[in-house]
């Protein structure tokens, strides 16, 4: 079948009908058999739209963390009809199980992107490319992630305020309720609280957490004693055991996650006038399968930091030089796809222990463990993708009010499943795995992953072709600024503590094959290690930058309207001008929550 490409640059033209401005979107309705995986009840007020209306008030493109919240909030106005379009299917039974997060990656729920080779990072991955999982599913990347609930540092949002970017009223154009200008961190905090249903009793008594929101937050009901040692290690280093989403960030804590009664939590809410269409792409058609829908008020793109710029550029909104390469007519020349930022971490730092307390695949018997999970919502299957502890610390290059390093602590490492899954998800080469990790397969270990919170390096997303079925080019550009790798090396120097000695903890010291010419443990060795297993933590942001009109890199204004294109907004992590200091799922939901209704 010959593919007919129909660019939104043609279809996204305003047409006047009885004084109303409508947006036209061409759709492909591909693979609709996948809607059989829809887990919503047939009588649910949320309707999977098998037959589309000709018009909707709002069309939201992308059902991820931000898009699902945007659609839910817009549909609270009973007279509005809202259509949510998602390229992937609904979640399946496996996606509910926190411990199986890695098994969702490289599946049909994952876009399975790869970064471009640079020679500076990901050197231990096949072809020198990092795997970049992105959710192709209702719920987006929140269905694939490790469910960690982190808001970022208040200094991040102070910076946005200084740039004049927190005066965001978003959808106030369409409501009769007068709104005040919002320009303080307190107004960001209230949207975090609005989205949250926190079920940790010791946290809900503080003014920093909320109950009754769309997103349930709590600790996993199961943990190993290693995470207690992790918190004790923080005290040794002078960091308190504290709520990292509270008044101050620097400190250690048992991780909070977006889970409910041991299962992955979802931010999607049932509404009477909220329709969704699964397995739908929004910028091309097959012959005979074209459908057109119109938006009376706005089209909102919430497809994430990779797919949003791809959709925009395919639609003629992007750098004119880039569009010219693919003979795409320019609707608006904007810096779409630039300013890509991600939290890069040092993977594979492994500590061996003598006591049988870690997560080792051969230790757990499948049937009783599954029954414990299914019946009681407890046991090892509730662990947050294996991550038990989080910490925010500063090197001498940072400070206590704005830490520059985050630690993820897990009672397992690359060797813990004997190469069955983790090595595949990371794309580790056979040489690296067989040399370093196979000798300790299924042995008790724990890992500490230092994460760079505010990278100076910037990457980009560009089109490989104007074929919408073809994945875009992604250049993470890790370590193009040498300051980034220097900061991560410093993080390793503060990573050892006495609290783990009761488990016989010691560093696994088989050197990486490509780093063995350096003295093990030296700064040069650690830099080589970091460049070898350079791990994404699945936090890409910034590719449709929010900024003032005088900023040449800005794609959207402080109200998230696309510059020079009326009736079009972007509401997802791509609008973030700088990356928040922490996991980005909660900030993406906060961006969606700021829709004013």
Radius of gyration: 23 Å
Strand percentage: 15-25%
- State the oligomer: single chain
Structural class: alpha/beta
CATH topology of the domain at 113-133 and 217-265 and 342-536, by name, is Glucose Oxidase, domain 3
Percent range for helical residues?
Answer: 10-25%
Unreliable stretches:
1-47, 168-186, 282-288
Instruction: Provide mean pLDDT, rounded.
Output: 83
CATH class of the domain at 113-133 and 217-265 and 342-536: Alpha Beta
Tell me the span between the first and last alpha carbons.
Answer: 44 Å
Largest sheet: 9 strands, mixed
CATH architecture field of the domain at 113-133 and 217-265 and 342-536: 2-Layer Sandwich
Protein name: Glucose-methanol-choline oxidoreductase N-terminal domain-containing protein
Cofactor: FAD
GO molecular function: flavin adenine dinucleotide binding; oxidoreductase activity, acting on CH-OH group of donors
Keywords: FAD, Flavoprotein, Membrane, Transmembrane, Transmembrane helix
């Amino acid at each position: 079948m010959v593919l007919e490409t129909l660019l939104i640059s043609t279809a996204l033209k305003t047409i006047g009908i009885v004084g109303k401005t409508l947006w036209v979107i061409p759709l492909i309705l591909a693979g609709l058999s996948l809607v059989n995986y829809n887990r919503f009840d047939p009588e649910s007020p949320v309707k999977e739209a098998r037959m589309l209306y000709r018009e909707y008030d709002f069309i939201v493109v992308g059902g991820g963390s931000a898009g699902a919240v945007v659609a839910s909030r817009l549909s609270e106005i009973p007279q509005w009809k809202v259509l949510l379009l998602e390229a992937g299917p609904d979640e399946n039974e496996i996606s509910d199980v926190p411990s199986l997060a890695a098994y969702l990656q490289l599946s049909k729920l994952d876009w399975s992107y790869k970064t471009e080779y640079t020679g500076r990072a990901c050197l231990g991955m096949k072809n020198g490319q990092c795997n970049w999982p992105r959710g192709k599913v209702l719920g987006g990347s929140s269905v694939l992630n490790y469910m960690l609930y982190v808001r970022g540092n208040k200094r991040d949002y102070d910076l946005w305020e200084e740039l004049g970017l927190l005066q965001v009223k978003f959808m106030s154009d369409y409501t009769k309720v007068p709104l005040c200008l919002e320009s303080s961190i307190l107004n960001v905090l209230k949207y975090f609280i609005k989205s949250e249903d926190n079920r940790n009793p010791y946290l809900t008594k503080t003014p920093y957490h909320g109950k009754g929101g769309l997103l349930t937050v709590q600790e996993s009901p199961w943990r190993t004693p290693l995470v207690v040692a992790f918190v004790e290690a923080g005290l040794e280093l002078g960091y308190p055991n504290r709520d990292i989403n509270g008044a101050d960030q620097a400190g250690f804590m048992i991780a909070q996650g977006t889970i409910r009664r041991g299962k992955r939590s979802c931010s999607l809410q049932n509404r009477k006038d909220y329709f969704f269409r699964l397995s739908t792409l929004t910028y091309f058609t097959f012959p005979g399968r074209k459908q057109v829908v119109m938006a009376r008020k706005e089209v909102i793109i919430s497809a994430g930091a990779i797919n949003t710029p791809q959709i925009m550029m395919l639609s003629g909104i992007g750098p004119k030089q880039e569009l010219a390469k693919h003979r795409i007519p320019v609707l608006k020349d904007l810096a779409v796809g630039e300013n890509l930022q991600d939290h890069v971490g040092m993977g594979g730092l492994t500590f061996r222990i003598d006591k049988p307390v870690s997560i080792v695949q051969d230790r757990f018997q499948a049937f009783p463990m599954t029954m414990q999970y299914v019946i009681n919502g407890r046991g090892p299957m509730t662990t947050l993708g294996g991550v038990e502890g989080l910490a925010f610390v500063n090197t001498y290059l940072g400070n206590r009010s704005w830490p520059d390093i985050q630690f993820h602590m897990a009672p397992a490492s690359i060797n813990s499943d004997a190469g069955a899954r983790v090595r595949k998800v990371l794309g580790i080469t056979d040489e690296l795995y067989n040399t370093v990790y196979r000798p300790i397969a299924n042995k008790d270990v724990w890992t500490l992953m230092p994460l760079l919170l505010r990278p100076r390096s910037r990457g980009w997303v560009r089109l490989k072709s104007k074929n919408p079925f073809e994945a875009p080019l992604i250049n993470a550009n890790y370590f193009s600024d040498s300051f980034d790798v220097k900061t991560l090396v410093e993080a390793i120097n503060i990573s050892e503590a006495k609290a783990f000695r009761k488990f016989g903890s010691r560093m696994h010291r088989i050197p990486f094959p490509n780093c063995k010419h350096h003295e093990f443990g030296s700064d040069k060795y650690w830099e080589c290690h970091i460049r070898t297993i350079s791990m994404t933590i699945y936090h890409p942001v910034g590719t449709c930058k929010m900024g003032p009109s005088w900023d040449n890199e800005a794609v959207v204004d402080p109200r998230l309207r696309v510059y020079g294109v009326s009736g079009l907004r972007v509401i997802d992590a791509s609008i973030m001008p700088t990356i928040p200091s922490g996991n980005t799922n909660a900030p993406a939901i906060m961006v969606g929550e700021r829709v004013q209704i």
